[in-house]
Write a structure and sequence with these properties.
8 helices; single chain; rod-shaped; Alpha-Beta Plaits
């Protein structure tokens, strides 16, 4: 039995030797050929292959390397918008208040406006105008003395005509009425004449004027001093007051 196994092993080794060395090629038994022509024939598009230099290989990004993205800006808690920057006056800790000056005359207003435009931010001031029409008076006077004034008052009371002090530069005198137009005052003077008033006349108590109001909504002490120095005579008798 051992002899038969030994003979089979020898025959198998001899057959493998002949097959591996191509001795059985005539019988169609031969190992696959690995010679150069057959290997080249199995290549797919060898001309597309290229060698990569060391420098190029080092600069080529790795497929696994993802481009870095900037971190998003932090969002305030609760989705709130960032607080706006404080105004210069508030940032410096200077207290502010709303101030207003009224009754600025037309002859001073234009120079004041030019100074404000040149030196103060536009949102720090407001200069507005108010037109006041002229006023006319039916007037009696000026009287020479207080005794004469009292006598005229008594005459008007006897005729049941209302009167008032004239005021200002028209003292001592009496006003029988104030009117927005000269025509209205003249008509009333005619009515008084029918009632026996002979010494009254029509005078202009106040001409047409335009007065200005300056408002500083957030004035610091420094801004107030700057504007007062800029306005000069415009603020004589017209000091700033709280809004």
């Amino acid at each position: 039995m051992l002899r038969i196994a030994f003979l089979l092993l020898v025959l198998a080794n001899a057959g493998y030797y002949l097959w591996s060395h191509g001795q059985l090629q005539a019988l169609g038994l031969a190992p696959p050929s690995t010679t150069e022509p057959e290997r080249l024939a199995q290549q797919v598009r060898p001309e597309a292959l290229s060698l990569l230099s060391v420098d190029n290989a080092s600069t080529t990004p790795s497929p696994a390397a993802a481009p870095s993205t900037p971190a998003p800006a932090p969002t305030p808690a609760g989705g709130e918008e960032p607080a706006p920057a404080p105004r210069p006056a508030q940032a410096a800790g200077q207290p502010t208040s709303c101030l207003v000056a009224t009754g600025i005359e037309d002859r001073h207003a234009e120079a004041l406006r030019r100074g404000l435009i040149a030196q103060v931010a536009s949102d720090q001031w407001d200069l507005s105008s108010t037109h006041q029409p002229g006023r006319w008076m039916v007037y009696m006077g000026k009287f020479p003395d207080a005794e004469f004034l009292e006598r005229k008052r008594a005459e008007l009371r006897a005729r049941k005509i209302d009167f008032d002090r004239a005021g200002g530069a028209l003292e001592p005198g009496l006003s029988l009425g104030r009117f927005s137009t000269e025509e209205a005052a003249t008509r009333e003077l005619t009515n008084f004449a029918r009632q026996g008033v002979r010494t009254a006349r029509v005078v202009q108590e106040r001409p047409d004027i335009t007065l200005y109001t300056l408002r500083l909504p957030q004035a610091t002490a420094a801004l107030r001093s700057q504007v007062e120095a800029m306005g000069g005579k415009a603020f004589e008798g017209k000091p700033f007051k709280p809004c």
